[in-house]
Amino acid sequence: MKFVIATGNAHKVEEFSRMLKNLDFSAISAKELGIDMDEAEEDGDTFEANALIKAQYACEKSGLPAFADDSGLCVDALGGRPGIYSARYAQNDQARITKLLKELDGVKEENRTAKFVSAIACVFPDGKKFTVRGETEGKIDFEPRGVGGFGYDPVFLYEGKSFGQMTGVEKDAVSHRGKALEKCLLELKKITEEDIYADK
Ligand code: ITT
Fold it and tell me: How far apart are CA 184 and CA 132, in angstroms?
């Protein structure tokens, strides 16, 4: 079965493609199919709701099963912000990091706890759908470190290393997106098995 990766974010496509590379799973990006994911209006009030909106949109446009990730950074000292508004927090990655560090100015190391959240939604042409969630806890550093990854990775500290200092494979092994994808693949396996039994 071929899936659409319903995202307009090239970094997410890169991470999903890397994680799915050695698996028996065929995926194509929305961009390769000429689908403009900016047209999907993310007006949900949870990560799951927004992931469903994006997956539903790509599924309708392509006629193929689709999966989408809605993700973000929840910072405890900011009451969980930017959360589902992580992409809209500022214009670009550099501006987002600068704004975040400014908001956390004066916040002590022990109070800089945060988590990355990824909700993945899968939507099928027959209307079947599900969502799963992965979370990774860490801390917001006082300055950016490393040039790997994307978004808030250079300031997200996980066990002494920022996500920006990790290789892609190292990040995948502990990331919110890696955890969500693992759950997603388990759900898909269940669905496939149910279908096989239903056919018998
Ligand atoms: P799509 O909606 O097209 O998938 P997007 O970038 O707008 O692309 P989101 O709405 O899910 O995606 O916003 C997620 C934002 O949260 C993303 O732009 C980053 O700023 C941040 N983010 C999510 N996962 C991240 C990660 O693994 N590392 C760093 N920042 C991340």
Answer: 6
Residue 92 CB neighbour total at 10 angstroms = 9
- Predicted local distance difference test score (pLDDT) of residue 22: 81
CA–CA separation, 174 vs 97, rounded Å? Answer: 21
Q: Is 9 in the pocket of ligand 1 (CB under 6 A)?
A: yes
Best residue among 5, 9, 16, 39 to mutate for probing ligand 1's pocket (most ligand atoms within 8 Å of CB) is 9
> Does the model's pTM come out above 0.90?
yes
Q: Which atom of ligand 1 is nearest to the CA of 47?
A: 11
Is residue 70 part of the annotated active site? The answer reads yes
**162, two tokens:** 């920022």
For residue range 127-184, list pLDDT tens digits in order: 999 999 999 999 999 999 999 999 999 999 999 999 999 999 999 999 999 999 999 9
